[in-house]
Amino acid sequence: MFFDILTLFPEMFVGPFSESILARAREEELIEINTINIRDYTYDKHHITDDTPYGGGAGMVLKPEPIYRAWQNINDKRQRDVTTILMSPQGKQLDQKMVKDLSLEEGLIIICGRYEGVDDRVRDLVVDEEISIGDYVLTGGELPAMVLVDAVARMKKGVLGDENSSIKDSFFNGLLEHPHYTRPREFAGLKVPDVLLNGNHGLIDLWRKKKSLQRTWLRRPDLLAKKRLTAAEEKLLEEIKAEIKGGQDD
Ligand code: SAM
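The joint structure predicted for all components is written out below.
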């Protein structure tokens, strides 16, 4: 899968995409990440990419022409219409379902705004989806684009490897994941739960399922309200509620 990212600050992407899992995925050509400098698509002497807003007001707005030319160039090069995303605090809020759906695409073009944002005609002309990473405003679309690429890339087969499979992660099946422990067995007076040490995988799976339900119920009841539970899960949840009422909690 390829990610073609339109930005005024390509250097920002170097570090985050040159380390660990994503660096290996790039080396193994499981994903391709390209940054395209919007400034390279300016034709004026001073390479201007922004201008003052019509109607007045503070800040600058990214001009439409350089972004449009850069976008056209990618589509010509790719010889197809590539799904185009504008990172925007006004977009649909990113969640795991969107991440999963986007990971089915062959590639994505991602536009990073700056300053007051992008001339709205860019949205009208080239954008398929506007995506936000949360209800707060950042200085630019670069960090949100990194979040999106990271989340989508780890859904691609081979990127995590089997041992790190994403299907057990929080949100994938609508629940938060169970807690994890590693060596030592005891640390600062706190012991790893016995059930994880006895090698009985039936009991371990049941404990993990219960913890997953418990955490979701306590921390994210909104997720639980949206999830269709199996009869076994319903039963576990009833047990959890009774235990918490009785004074045991997470
Ligand atoms: N004036 C805009 C508004 O109020 O909606 C905010 C512009 S913001 C300072 C500049 C750029 O950062 C945006 O065009 C967008 O690309 C990016 N950005 C900021 N916050 C974001 C968020 N929560 N999610 C996605 N992109 C964001």
